[in-house]
Amino acid sequence: MTPLLDLRDRALLTALEDGLPLVSRPYRMVGDQLGISEGEVITRLQRLIACGVIRRFGAVVRHRALGYTANAMVVWDIADERVDAAARTAMAFPFVTLCYRRPRREGWRYNLFCMIHGRQRATVLAQVDALRAALGIDVSDHAVLFSTRAFKQRGARYGASMTLEPA
Amino acid sequence: MDSSPIDLRLLNDYQRNFPLTARPFAAIADELGTSEAEVIERFAALRAEGKLARIGPVIRPHAVGASTLAAMAVPPDEVEAIATLIAARAEVNHCYEREHPVNLWFVVTAADETAVNAVLTAIELHTGRKVIDLPLLAAYHIDLGFPL
């Protein structure tokens, strides 16, 4: 378990899984639910943001509902020793919203993942081409996986470890 | 996007640094020159329309609990049934069909790695299909939100 988080932090993050209540004093309402003060809710959130556990705090939007329907996961098969440098190159493109390294597996040889959310498929494909040229990757060593159907999309739930009761 | 200017600002400008003050919607209203009631009403409408998922924390991967990206190759006529089965699990928070022979993609999040692995095993048993487990090795991008 991360020492940065105590049980109240965990309870607070659990209480926020569905987001802040849309009321005038949302932090007070969350605090009431947990038996802590509004001020404590706010200072705990400030600390979790400062220490990096919370990466950002604010509106989480749904790309599809906003018209960004061309959503591609672009995957690359890159020599292991070049992955970090390739990721830095990819991140320089503003249209790359996320960039992750993942392991190769049987039946899956791609080790670098980039997400591109766009409105038009043709635009996204042109962006992928630009990215591929910058990375110097052969066409055969990448794949573009557009999403076709979303069966589920919501924030993470971490389960029983995040209640006030000792695990 | 075809939303009003205030909606665009609510969705775009407050993806991070959302006010941590007693009345955050009033603080936003001051910045946008409108009323607290209007800000709350517009956020509620955007949520009802599905454009806003929530206002809250985005947690760094593995800072709390454990997670992985998993994938399966599923025959096209079985995608819907298998995806429905996978999406029904509380530990699965994203589930997408994608254009590739490995066509079903989902994210599993649970209290720890053992719990994540148990979910993957249960899904393999349930579906009779192999799950490719692709945990994060490095995140190169800091999630600063999504400019609209």
Briefly characterize the structure:
The complex is a heterodimer of chains A (about 170) and B (about 150). Chain A has about 170 residues and is of the alpha+beta class. Helices cover about 35% and strands about 25% of the residues of chain A.
Strand count, sense and barrel status of the largest sheet of chain A are: 4 strands, antiparallel
Shape by Cα distribution of chain A? elongated
Uncertain runs of chain A: 159-167
Query: Taking Cα atoms only, what radius of gyration of chain B do you get, to the nearest Å?
Result: 19 Å
Average pLDDT for all residues of chain B: 91
What structural class do helix, strand and pairing data of chain A support?
A: alpha+beta
Fraction of residues in β-strands of chain B = 15-25%
Radius of gyration of chain A (Å):
20 Å
Oligomer: heterodimer
- What is the CA–CA distance across the termini of chain B? 8 Å
CATH topology of the largest domain in chain A, by name, is: Alpha-Beta Plaits
β-sheet strand percentage of chain A: 15-25%
* Whole-number total of structural domains of chain B: 2
Query: Which strands sit side by side, in order, in the main sheet of chain B?
Result: 3-4-2-5
CATH class of the largest domain in chain A: Alpha Beta
**Gross CATH architecture of the largest domain in chain B:** 2-Layer Sandwich
User: Which residues of chain B form runs of ≥5 with pLDDT under 50?
Assistant: none
Question: Can you characterise this structure?
Answer:
The complex is a heterodimer of chains A (167) and B (148). By secondary structure, chain A is α+β, with helices and mostly antiparallel strands. Chain A folds into two domains: 7-60, Arc Repressor Mutant, subunit A (Orthogonal Bundle), CATH 1.10.10; 64-146, Alpha-Beta Plaits (2-Layer Sandwich). Chain A has five helices and five strands; from the N terminus they run H-H-H-E-E-H-E-E-H-E. Chain A has helices at residues 7-15, 26-34, 38-50, 83-91, 121-135; strands at 54-61, 70-76, 96-101, 112-118, 142-153. A four-stranded antiparallel β-sheet of chain A has the order 3-4-2-5, covered by helices on one side. In chain A, helix 1 crosses helix 2 and helix 2 crosses helix 3 (38-50). Chain A is elongated. The N and C termini of chain A lie close together (11 Å). Mean pLDDT of chain A is 88; it is low at 159-167. Chain B has 148 residues and is α+β, with helices and mostly antiparallel strands. Chain B folds into two domains: 5-48; 66-134, 2-Layer Sandwich (Alpha-Beta Plaits). Chain B contains five helices and six strands. In chain B, helix 1 packs across helix 3 and helix 2 (24-32) crosses helix 3 (36-48). The radius of gyration of chain B is 19 Å and the shape is elongated. Chain B starts with a helix and ends in a 9-residue tail after the last strand. At the A-B interface, helix 2, helix 3, strand 1, helix 4 and strand 3 of A face helix 2, helix 3, strand 1, strand 2 and helix 4 of B.
